[in-house]
């Protein structure tokens, strides 16, 4: 198998995890930046819709590195999808596949199920909750918590900050409750 | 501009570096972002299915990713501190401590809900749009509005 074929295969966790972990020292060494992605949402608010709210009155231009970083993530997504795409459907566990089939979700051709995340779905109640309410909770929750998976779970814990461990445990508890107890009702809508 | 009460939450996410980056020097963050976005997609971390498998304990994959990322992160930060490694500009590396407030619990739970619904943290949202799932632009705008709404009502929330 050629190198490009190996790269096109899905990468195992023990390759992806350490590469993500390395982002922490890379950002510190190239510019004293603490890894954190959800702050970009705040900078976008500060730049576009500050509305005289004190939380958005700061020099966001000084933090523009973060916007370059997330724009890079977007470009990385394009490169990976168009030049390094895995030709095979996403492999998912048989249990999940069976569960999802009961909600009419059978399309595993992409990384997100088309039945839930598409423009057609947006105009259904189920799709609206998933796309709009889900996004709102991500934006509100991460800022209220003071960070997301990158800022707390990876950067904060890397710096041995116990509040980040608390936040990470709460992310997981929230995720367990939603995925197991509430999401089944949303998916049956 | 900050009153004392808001100090902790107002400054988080704002970096300590005193060196002002020019537009050109910001390009290096763009490159790191591109690299990061490729990892996100190729390891399928941005997959809604992977996140469901994680929260339903059906697969070890995401635990392996986050766990090994944390191990590498902890070791790197300890090395940087122990050997007093400087930035490439020669500045001392400073990492802001995280101070505890109740937002980490309430906000953490809310983000957990959103994470399980959308299958994405803020980073993967940008990568998902890149892979061509354009409707995620709506999720991103909604997340930006969520952040904005937090800023609007934060003084009324328990912290």
UniProtKB/TrEMBL annotation, chain A:
Gene Ontology cellular component terms for the protein in this record: plasma membrane
Pfam families on file: Sulf_transp
Topology relative to the membrane: Multi-pass membrane protein
Subcellular location: Cell inner membrane
Family annotation (InterPro entries): Sulf_transp_TsuA/YedE (IPR007272)
Keyword terms, alphabetized: Cell inner membrane, Cell membrane, Membrane, Transmembrane, Transmembrane helix, Transport
Main location: membrane
Regions that span the bilayer: 12-30, 65-85, 123-145, 165-187
Family: Belongs to the TsuA/YedE (TC 9.B.102) family.
Name of this chain's protein: Putative transporter component
Species the sequence originates in: Flavobacterium aquidurense
Lineage: Bacteria, Pseudomonadati, Bacteroidota, Flavobacteriia, Flavobacteriales
TrEMBL record, chain B:
Alphabetized UniProt keyword annotations: Membrane, Transmembrane, Transmembrane helix
A Pfam family of this chain: Sulf_transp
Membrane among keywords: yes
InterPro entries (UniProt xref): Sulf_transp_TsuA/YedE (IPR007272)
Annotated transmembrane regions: 29-49, 61-80, 105-127, 133-153
Entry protein name: YeeE/YedE family protein (DUF395)
Lineage of the species this protein comes from: Bacteria, Pseudomonadati, Bacteroidota, Flavobacteriia, Flavobacteriales
């Amino acid at each position: 198998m050629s190198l490009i074929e190996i790269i096109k295969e899905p990468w195992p966790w023990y390759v992806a995890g350490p590469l993500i972990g390395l982002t922490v020292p890379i950002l510190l060494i190239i510019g004293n930046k603490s890894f954190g992605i959800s702050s970009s949402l705040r900078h976008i608010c500060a730049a576009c819709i500050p509305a005289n709210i004190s939380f958005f009155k700061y020099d966001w231009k000084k933090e523009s590195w973060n916007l370059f970083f997330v724009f890079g993530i977007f470009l990385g997504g394009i490169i990976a999808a168009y030049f390094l795409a895995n030709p095979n459907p996403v492999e998912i566990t048989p249990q999940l596949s069976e569960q999802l089939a009961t909600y009419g979700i059978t399309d595993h051709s992409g990384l997100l199920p088309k039945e839930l995340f598409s423009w057609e779905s947006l105009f259904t109640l189920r799709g609206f909750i998933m796309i709009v309410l889900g996004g709102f909770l991500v934006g509100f929750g991460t800022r209220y918590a003071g960070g997301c998976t990158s800022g707390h779970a990876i950067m904060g814990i890397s710096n041995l900050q116990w509040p980040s461990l608390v936040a990470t445990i709460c992310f997981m508890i929230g995720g367990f409750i939603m995925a197991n107890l509430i999401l089944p009702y949303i998916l049956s809508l | 501009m900050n009153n004392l009460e808001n100090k902790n939450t107002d400054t988080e996410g704002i970096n300590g570096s005193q060196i002002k980056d020019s537009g050109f020097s910001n390009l290096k963050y763009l490159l790191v972002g591109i690299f990061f976005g490729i990892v996100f997609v190729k390891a399928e971390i941005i997959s809604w299915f992977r996140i469901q498998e994680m929260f339903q304990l059906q697969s070890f994959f995401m635990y392996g990713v986050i766990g090994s990322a944390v191990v590498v992160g902890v070791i790197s930060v300890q090395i940087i501190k122990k050997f007093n490694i400087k930035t490439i500009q020669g500045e001392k590396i400073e990492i802001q401590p995280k101070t505890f407030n109740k937002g980490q619990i309430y906000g953490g739970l809310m983000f957990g809900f959103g994470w399980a619904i959308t299958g994405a943290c803020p980073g993967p949202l940008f990568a998902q749009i890149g892979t061509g799932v354009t409707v995620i632009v709506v999720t991103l705008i909604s997340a930006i509005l969520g952040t904005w709404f937090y800023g609007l009502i934060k003084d009324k929330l328990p912290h």
